[in-house]
Amino acid sequence: MIEKNKTKRKIDSFENLLRQGKYREAIVLGEEIHKAYPEEESVLLMLSWAYYDSGDTQQAIIYLNILLERELLRKVFTSFAFDELVRIYRQEKNFHKLVEICERAVAAQPEDIGLLTELGKAYLQSGQAKKACGIYEKLIGIEKRQSRFLLPMGRSFVCRRVDSGKRKSLSTGQRN
After folding, report:
1. pLDDT per residue over 39-73, tens digit each?
2. Does the CA dihedral 44-49-51-52 come out positive or negative?
3. Separation CA 38–CA 53 (nearest Å)
4. 3 state DSSP class of 39
5. CB neighbourhood size of 22 (10 A)
6. Number of helices (H) and strands (E), helices first, in the chain?
7. Is 84 exposed, middle or buried (0-12, 13-18, 19+ CB in 10 A)?
8. Which has the closest alpha carbon to 133: 101, 165, 156, 162?
9. pLDDT per residue as tens digits for the range 97-113
10. CA–CA dist 134, 128 (Å, integer)
C-alpha cells in the first residue's frame, strides 16, 4: 500500500494532470509511480484511463487486462477493469474479445448474475444466439422470479431461428 507523503503527492499530481487533460504528462508520472508500486491498482486504473483518453486504446487495454486478472482472483469481484473492458470492446464492436472476457469472468464467478447477463448480451452481439439462450436459461433458473431475463431470452430464440436459415419465413410471416 502506498504510505509515503511524497508518493501521495505524486498520485494527487497524477490525478490533477488527468483532470486537466494533460495525458502525456500524466502517463509519464503514472508510469513512474507504477514502476515503484506495481501492486497499486488505483494507479493501474488511472494509467489505463490516461492511455485511453490520449487515444492509445491498446495500452489502456493492456493495463485493464492486468487489473482484470487480479479481479478474477478475488472472492469478491470488484469489476472495475471488467466494466471498462466491456465498454471499450462494445464501443469498438470487438465482439470476439467481448465474449472472451465475459467468459473468463463467468468462469471465475459462475453464479454472478451481472456477469452472466453481460455474457448473454455478448453472445447475442457476437451472433452466438444458441449460447445466449443457454445463459438466459441459466439466469432464469437462478432467478426464478425475475422476468427481466425473458425478453433477452426471447431475442435469443428469434436470433437462433433467423440464424438457422429461417430468415425468409420470418420476414414473410410464414410459419414452419
Report:
1. 989 999 999 999 999 999 999 999 999 999 998 88
2. positive
3. 21
4. coil
5. 15
6. 10, 0
7. buried
8. 156
9. 999 999 999 999 998 88
10. 10
